[in-house]
Target: Attractin like 1
Amino acid sequence: MEIGGRCKTRLFLFGPKLVSRSDPRGIHKYLVVYALFSFVLLTHASPAKSCDKSCNSGKCINGSCVCERGWVGDQCQHCQGRFKLTEPSGYLTDGPFNYKFKTKCTWLIEANPNAVLRLRFNHFATECSWDHMYVYDGDSVYAPLVAVFSGLIVPETRGNETVPEVETTSGYALLHFFSDAAYNLTGFNILYSINSCPNNCSGHGKCTPGNSAASRVYCECDKYWKGEACDIPYCRNNCGSPDHGYCDLTGEKLCVCNDSCPLTAPYYIFPAGRRQKLLHDGT
Model:
């Protein structure tokens, strides 16, 4: 209080306040409020705590992984739920590590009615006869069962053999996987595609759409290949060209041997006159 009974105005953080010099309690109160407000500002401005490990199918929030729907585990690394897939192509997996015990996961792939869906099993490893993958041609377990997988699927590396493919034609595919409470393995990685050609034509042709909207796509094979997936050669080993023969693509598309070709060659044919002469001579 000033001489004459007048008050002075003191400016604090939250605006003007009438205090007297002889009343320090008001100043103390505002100092406490100021300290608390500063603490709140510093707390919210500080960066969020990071996670010790990566969150595979989730987000790191304040040092912990918060999983997306259908995923569980401290790193959101295990499937355990239902998934719906509607993209033209994609993949489904149990996770980046061994699947967990008592797993139950279901995927519904949805396309247009009567569209063709292809499933390509690039990797599959489960406890044989105990942990299974069921594939249905429809949107429920009451649809036709088209395949059951259990055990190991190892992609072939020789010749034209390919990893297994499963086809559904209803416009849907339902996959259900479950494991027991004992042994577990690395699981699976399955690619899917809608209205695609079998095995991508094996790299020996191109995928061509049909003439009408209702027609399916098909493989248009290169000249030396045939089959639905262009995976069967017209001439094995190219007929041993050039030393033993050549592949004749003008007629039946078979091997024609040179004069030096042995009679017992397993995959050659001979011009009619040449073969008769060899048989007659006995050489």
Notes: Residues 9-45 form one domain. Residues 24-45 form the longest helix (22 residues).
